[in-house]
Amino acid sequence: MSRPDRAADIARDRPAVVDAADYPNPNDPLGDPAQCQQPYPAGTFDGQIVLCDRGSIPRFLKSLHVRDGGAGGIVFANTPDGLSSLVADVFAIPGIHISAEDSARLREWLAVGDEHFATITPALASDDPTQADRLGTVASHGPNQGLDFLAPSLAAPGLGIRGAWIAPDDYASAPEWFGHHAGAGAIALVKAQWPYWSDAEILSALMTTASSDLRQEPLLEPADPWAYGGGRVDVVAAILAGLTLDESDLAFAQADPAGGGEPRDLNLAGLVDNACEGVCSWRRFVRSRPGALEWAVAASMRDDDVAITVTPETFQIAGGYQAIDVVVDARAVSDGGYRFGEVTLTSISNPGIPPAVLQVAVDVLVDSDGDGVANRHDNCTTQANPAQRDSDNDGYGNYCDADLDNSGIVNTVDLGLMRQRFGGDNAHADLDGNGVVDSRDLDILRGQFHAPPGPSGVVDD
């Protein structure tokens, strides 16, 4: 049998594998055929298995695009700089999802010779715990700037979730919404078990019993509460919750910032302060259900430069509410930014009740020069300048800005300008703001000689 005949015989049993990157698509204005972003013209392919890169549009749509062009199958490939997760998708044609490493090996194989045939075998279900509790980059993330409450409230499965009612061609637009569906279903299940709980109590039960052991795509680093809220929802644990936090409809209405309210004061499961200057604190009120009367309280922060205390350390509650006071001391922080922690309440009287965990998120504002302006808002972070004078509006406070000609460096030109203005009231050369250009301004300039202006939290951040 000649070589062409042998290839034809193989092709009857196994279709050829081709790279979409080798098939320019006239329907794609971006000119990147490897992404399979637009439907291919009919007849582009003839039953081949087409390799497409993972990208910005739903995977199912890509399978439709190559199917419209005549493909018989699809290999969906992760890229080196993209997400690492693998999803058992439903495609419009037989398909498989492979890693970036496997994609590289496949392309190496395709680059050698011209006889590349393969089959896509049926998928087999497997249980791989390492694929669980990964947060995708498409998920909602906090913080909600200016509002001190935890958002999102919860994380829930939202990608690659199949619904029996979804028609195949509609699947591509559906997965991102399943997180919301999971939340609604979880609320309904908890409400069925505890019909007298308020909406706020149900939310608190879901948040305080959720799992916070989640990792963030694409690097699979430990996630933080701005990614998962209280955590990944656990309905069984929420139904078993021994503590809840309640809040009235009136309190929610009064906390509306549009009316001058403060969401931070609401009795919610998250402890958030987006502007913690040194020490910040919260008070929460919890109540227990029957059989969960005695509790121990502990608290911890992820970073050693922040201390957290909680009182009381133990309590008994038999009806009514128990106040919990939490204090975060961030005065030892030198670089600012968010710090995260947890307050954990553990049932002593009933070990079968899951712990209740309140997530802590504080944005620490550091004021290195003690002028009352946090570094990130301070236009001169190394010299106290509470007035924040910036006469040339370049983001550098006068006290840190002897660069009078705005060249980016303090040099002899600036020294000459200072001498020309000496004894006058030039606002730019009056570095200390006393109303006159004098020897003190000259000393400031000499201290900054051969250096750029700043540092400024306004510009440098």
Strand order of the largest sheet: 9-16-15-11-13
Query: Major β-sheet, in short?
Result: 5 strands, mixed
Q: What fraction, in percent, of the residue positions are helical?
A: 10-25%
* Tally of individual helices: 11
Alpha carbon gyration radius? 31 Å
Distance between the termini: 71 Å
Quantity of strands, as a count: 16
Strand content: 15-25%
Mean pLDDT: 87
Which consecutive residue ranges, at least 5 long each, have pLDDT under 50?
A: 1-11, 168-177
N to C succession of SSEs: HEEHEEHEHHEEHHEHEEEEEEEEHHH
Number of domains: 4
Q: Specify the structural class.
A: alpha/beta
Broad shape: flat
Secondary-structure topology with pairs:
Blueprint: H1 3-13, E1 17-19, E2 49-53, H2 59-68, E3 73-77, E4 95-98, H3 100-110, E5 134-135, H4 178-193, H5 199-208, E6 215-216, E7 221-222, H6 225-228, H7 235-239, E8 243-244, H8 249-254, E9 271-276, E10 279-288, E11 294-301, E12 307-311, E13 314-316, E14 322-329, E15 337-347, E16 356-364, H9 412-421, H10 439-447, H11 457-460
